[in-house]
Amino acid sequence: MSHALSELPVGFHRRRFSAEGGVGFDAFIWRGGPGPVVLVNGATHGDEYEGPTLLRLWADRWRPGRLNGTVVFVPVLNEAAFFAGQRCAPVDGANLARVFPGTADGTPTERLAHLFDTQLLAQCTHYADLHSAGAAYHLKPWTGYVTHRAAITRTQRAMAACFDAFWVWAGPYLPGRTLSAAFARNIPAIYVECQGLGGVDAGDLRNLDRGVRNLLRWAGVTKGAAPRLRSQKVRITRDVDEAHLQVHHPAPVDGLFVPHAALDRRVRRGAPLGRVLPLDGTDGHVVRAESTGRIILIRRQRSVRRGDALFTLAPV
Known about the structure:
Elements: E1 11-18, E2 24-31, E3 37-42, H1 50-61, E4 70-74, H2 79-84, H3 108-119, E5 126-132, E6 137-139, E7 142-146, H4 150-162, E8 167-171, H5 178-184, E9 189-194, H6 202-219, E10 234-236, E11 255-259, E12 266-267, E13 272-277, E14 285-288, E15 293-299, E16 303-304, E17 311-314
Parallel strand pairs: 3-4, 3-5, 5-9, 7-8, 8-10
Antiparallel strand pairs: 1-2, 2-4, 6-15, 7-9, 11-13, 11-16, 12-15, 13-14, 15-17
């Protein structure tokens, strides 16, 4: 079966994209007339449920009239991780958001990345990846993008503005992500992060829904006046590690994590944020703020292994 979107007749379509080894995903496609191709996916990580919930509901309910372009939703990209209820696929333990663009003959996760990159991402003009903090973390929702050459960066900033209930955090290129693959193809791309906590917050779902509707109107795919957008707090960094969530405040030992600071609190460098208590009764280890800033992510899962990220701060 051909997966060329341009060959589909006008209307609503369901398609299964598959690769060797049983990896694949389901896509819902609304094909309209000539125009942009907007691709949105959820569950790049399997324990992030906000994107899948929104996109699957749209697939059931959204039957627009004329579209000036094509809309493609993939509610669950990483099915193996999703059904295991885990961030990463259990079959190979790989993080899908670290292996792009993947390879056709690699591990199952690498094959999935290659399938998505070559068969769908390569056909789109605008891309959004809907993430969240997942089951183990809680975060202050934001949207972001990889800084690029000026024209693409301006487009990405406009896309991020559509998700106007979220603050904006943009930074340099990091390898392996879905947005890294879009960067390599010069496709304007954003990501959105919701609260997580292993569930779906009703407010997050409303804000995502508003953002997707705004994005489609902004792109000109759907009819309607340009949305009136709320102003956003914006942080653009040149520090490649600033928005790299997994590298900050690592647990110094295995043990029980006891946080002392709350999400969204401003702290000064050196302030105690929490402790990690070894299970053998030896002295606990205090975790202190690496910098001055606002706590925008905190680990909610109390069991930790050495190296697990416990907090992320941002200078906002």
